[in-house]
What does this fold into?
Amino acid sequence: MKAVVQRVSHANVVVNGGEPRGIGRGFVVLLGVGADDTRAEADKLWNKISKLRIFADDEGKTNLALADVAGELLIVSQFTLFADCRKGNRPSFIHAGSPDVAIPLYEYFVELARAQVPHVETGEFGADMQITLCNDGPFTICLDTNDL
It folds into this structure.
């Protein structure tokens, strides 16, 4: 699994032109599921994200995790994190998980988050979505379970 984690002051997603689903201070997590991923990768990735200490403490040091600041989450599936651009100019997505693999793992990841975070919003797998966010810092972390 791969994730792009952005620390935000606020963010929202609009799914298929519907009502915005928004959060305040917290993380936007763009989540990509690979073809060979399992719940073990989801567990590993959530464990890392939930403990990332990238919020400032009273001394201005990035020392606090999401729970320490009562942070919120916006999780959006993004298979394009598995884009392979090595050949030509059109990305290949052969390493991305097919919907029958990716949807259950995406939903499982959301369940893990909701078990610990009071306010979690999500996009919708495979839908047309527009994301608006204010990256706080800016602070962006790229994670790959193969490297954790």
